[in-house]
Amino acid sequence: MTTRYERIKMQRRMQRRIRMVVEERRVAFAAKAAQPVADLETTMEIPLMTQPDRAIGRVSVQQV
Question: How many Å apart are CA 59 and CA 64, to the nearest integer?
C-alpha cells in the first residue's frame, strides 16, 4: 500500500513524462510541417534495362 505522498509523487512523475512526450511530438510535427511536401501526383520515369536478357536474382549457367 502506497502512502498519499507516494501516490501524489507518482502522479506528478507521470504527468511530467506525459508533458515531455506531448512536447516531443509537437516539435516533431512542427519540423515535419516545415519540410516541403512531395507532390504525390508527379510521375517518375523508369529507365529500360540496358541488358534485357538479364534478370535480377538469376545466374547464367554454361553447359559443358
Answer: 16
pLDDT, one tens digit per residue, over 1-31 is: 789 999 999 999 999 999 999 999 998 888 7
CA distance 44 to 22: 37
Residue type, 28: A
Q: How many residues does the chain have?
A: 64
The sign of the dihedral angle between the CA atoms of 29, 33, 36, 40 is: positive
Task: Give yes or no for residue 54 having a pLDDT over 60.
Answer: no
CA distance 5 to 7: 5
DSSP 8-state symbol, 47: P
The pTM score is 0.47
Half-sphere exposure of 61 (CA within 13 A, CB side): 4
Dmax over CA atoms of the chain, in Å, equals: 86
